[in-house]
Design brief:
By secondary structure, this protein is α+β, with helices and mostly antiparallel strands. The chain has one domain: Alpha-D-Glucose-1,6-Bisphosphate, Chain A, domain 4. Helix content is about 25%, strand content about 35%. The chain has three helices and eight strands; from the N terminus they run H-E-H-E-E-E-E-E-E-E-H. Strands 1, 2, 3, 4, 5, 6, 7 and 8 form an eight-stranded antiparallel beta sheet that branches. A hairpin with a 4-residue loop joins strand 2 and strand 3. It starts with a helix and ends with a helix.
């Protein structure tokens, strides 16, 4: 009887289990032409990073590149890593946030933003934690950071 009860509990648990649902790759506006001089856009972009308290890893004005590594504590506001299933957890690793600023004319500047994030999808083995599995998954931007930066530098 005890074995039958355990089997019944296992069947019920498995039948209620959910599985990882991959994220959708959202259509995000990541390129914008802003009608301001290059130097103004450069200065405002660097200021935005400072106001957001995001440390800059690479800053090369003559090529227009600003790059950083990001770690979010509340990543769900910014990136979609999918939906974990039963006994699964998503832990966001550090992501890359790159901005390229290009002078198009004396008062026209193009800004391109690229975000790349990966996360660890952990599945817990309830029988023996030594058999937990880990899988690297891609996360996609929701467009929030891009919109915040574009709004700030477009003022």
């Amino acid at each position: 009887m005890k074995k039958l009860t355990l089997l019944l509990i296992a069947v019920l648990f498995v039948s209620c289990a959910t599985y990882y649902k991959a994220p959708r790759k959202n259509k995000v506006e990541n390129i914008k032409v802003i009608y301001k001089p290059y130097d103004d856009i450069w200065r405002e972009t660097v200021k935005w990073f400072a106001f957001k308290n995001i440390p800059i890893k690479n800053l090369v004005k003559n090529s227009g590149l600003i790059s950083t590594e990001l770690m979010f504590f509340n990543y769900k506001n910014y990136v979609d890593c999918g939906k974990p299933g039963t006994l699964q957890n998503i832990v966001l690793d550090v992501g890359n946030f790159n901005v390229v600023i290009e002078k198009l004319g004396s008062k026209n500047t193009q800004v391109t933003i690229s975000l790349f994030f990966k996360a660890d999808l952990t599945t817990t083995n309830i029988m023996d934690r030594r058999y937990d599995t880990h899988k690297t998954i891609n996360c996609y931007s929701k467009g929030v950071l891009e919109k915040e930066l574009f709004n700030f530098i477009s003022k």
